[in-house]
Amino acid sequence: MEFNSTKNKELGIYINEIIEIGAVKLNEYLEEIGEFSATVKPHFTKKLNPYFKKLTKISDKDLKISENFSTVIENFITWCEADKSTVFLSWSDTDLHVLVENYNQLLKRENVDFIKRYADLQKYIMSFLKTENNNQISLTAAAEQFSLSTKKFEMHRATDDSKVCGQLLKKTFENEKFSKYIRNTENPLFYRKLVFKPYIITDLKKAKIEQEQLFYTCPFCKNKIKFDGKFNRKFKAFCEIRQCKNCKNKIAATFRLKQNFDSVQISKRIKKYVKQKER
Description:
5-stranded antiparallel sheet
């Protein structure tokens, strides 16, 4: 999908509004047996973002003669002819995020109910590649890694991007491995987890953690230091300066807590305290 960042003036919030939907359909042998392509008339804006125009080569004139989102999505669903065995894929789950967002704001529906099984193709392809710090790579870069030429495709257009995705899947497909990336979207937790936005915890009293998780070890004598709750917030982190009762060294401890959907991620930085010189 291609989408344009705009503002929903009714709600006073920004939305990534879908303005193109493209797809290819593959059979059990991963052969192309059909394609779908449609631009979507915007609901929230009359003019596209200049960056988006340059990226996709889609013009305001193209969209004026397009159908609205509701009509295009119904046409797409009909074209899909999906059943419970159909797997929908996209390059990263961003498209699915945006689709949910458009369903919510334009159709007043919470879940994308025509998708029963979903897989993030980017995650699957990344499992074959080694990148610095496991950084995600673009579709074009991934194609290059597998010696797939994209010259004949118009990248950043929904259908051609889908064709490249199809070629990548066919090039790398391992049934047992791929099946581990398929998610059941009918699971009640699927969409709740998808739309959940991780955030930094700024109130320790509201953090759902055990006190034991906030213990730390003296870097000098390995003495275990008990968290006493006397932290000062600094840059969305909790910081304290403590003297180890065992070795008498002063320690600077910094904790950052991130709330994920089903867990709290705790980052700790423990080092010798060095008094900063006054300016």
